[in-house]
Specification:
nine-stranded mixed beta sheet; alpha+beta; 23% helix; homodimer; globular
């Protein structure tokens, strides 16, 4: 039987989602907890890989087991067993051919940025002091819909076959006078893509480049032209749709 | 000239507001920063003392100096100098007889409680798993308006002359399915009072005592009858009125 786990985590203390040779990962932490509780070696497959320090308000992972599972009791036991920075919201049986990664049709991220020092967001939002032109940043963000090849915002030398992504949402929302959230959704994301887009939008916001310049960077398909990646601790995976 | 500082802090790494023989305090950290920047020994007086681990969304403190101050520039310089868990919002000249502590007419606190594991609130809200009767807790909270002597919720052996407080607000607000905030305002608060009230309201919420029992605890003027203090990390000073 295949099960979907819905979970959240604060990425601060993890070397990302995926199991790493050095440093603990969210995936490994959950696998160990599940394997201990179910007394059986359990492997889980996540909807995507988040980098070191990136958070998830909602991540989906699947695992297979023949062991009978009480889907009310197991999340409760896992939450007691897991550290305070990983929380299981739900475990539910799904069709055997539903794959947490390959069956996902849409993923959403948020990037949180504060323009004033905020003592309650030091580890969960990027503090960028100074004036940003969010109108220009939103205009540039809307240009993302015109493109499908995002080579300019991908990590170099990855093994993906295509750098094509369909963008469904890309906009900055102001949630308080000094707190902004960049919402972005797509069918798929390249490694490092959201942070590279945010970093390049910040170049627009500080008038280092124009909106046209932003478009030229995408058209160049040259990662070196894009901005520095925005820091990991402002980024959250927020939704995975199947 | 006297100045008011408006500031916020995350109390996690501090032994409270007030200077302590062991461990760093918010007051000391700010005094050192101010004294360094102004090249003069500066003492500050806060609107109140918060305990170890308690946060402030808004704290007011005053200091006196004859040095000419640029009230636009100084907050900026202080924020660069101070650690990321203390932020200065404003510095403004006030009348010489306005006292941050003694002139305050009203103080407000929030107590944050989550009933589900929340990976983004582990250090800023109290995680209380299980079912709480918030209707009963709100009914009990409303009884606070009927009393002025809160000896039952005070620390024993303090040097205050009276345990009388006038309560202006006391209510639980639900801000998300599993996140509740207790709002309380009064002319003054006794040491440990808010956390003792929250701890006793939790006894109502778990049906260990009734609303009448809550009133009897207040009337007994006996600290030993009240509930255990709720943990510090859920508590925030949020407003001081003059």
């Amino acid at each position: 039987m295949r099960y979907f786990i819905t979970l959240s985590y604060n990425g601060k203390n993890y070397h990302g989602w995926q199991i790493q040779p050095n440093g603990s990962s969210v995936q490994e932490t959950i696998e160990k907890a599940l394997s201990t509780i179910l007394r059986s070696d359990i492997s889980i497959v996540g909807a995507g890989r988040t980098d070191t320090g990136v958070h998830a308000k909602k991540m989906i992972a699947h695992f297979d087991t023949d062991i009978e599972i009480n889907t009310t009791e197991l999340p409760r036991r896992l939450n007691c067993f897991l550290p305070s920075d990983i929380a299981i919201q739900k475990i539910e049986p799904v069709a055997d051919d539903l794959h947490a990664r390959f069956s996902a049709t849409k993923r959403s991220y948020e990037y949180h940025l504060v323009t004033e020092k905020d003592v309650f967001c030091t580890e969960t939002a990027y503090f960028y002091p100074g004036v940003l032109d969010f109108d220009a940043m939103n205009e540039a963000a809307s240009k993302l819909f015109n493109y499908i090849d995002f080579t300019s915002f991908s990590k170099l030398h990855t093994d993906v076959k295509t750098n094509n992504c369909t963008i469904y949402e890309a906009r900055w929302e102001q949630v308080s006078p000094s707190h902004w959230i960049f919402h972005i959704s797509a069918d798929r994301f390249l490694r490092n893509m959201v942070r590279a887009i945010v970093g390049t939008l910040l170049m627009v916001g500080t008038k280092k480049i124009s909106v046209d310049g932003f478009c030229q960077i995408i058209e160049s398909k040259d990662r070196c032209k894009a901005g520095t990646s925005a820091p990991a601790h402002g980024l959250y995976l927020t939704e995975v749709v199947y």
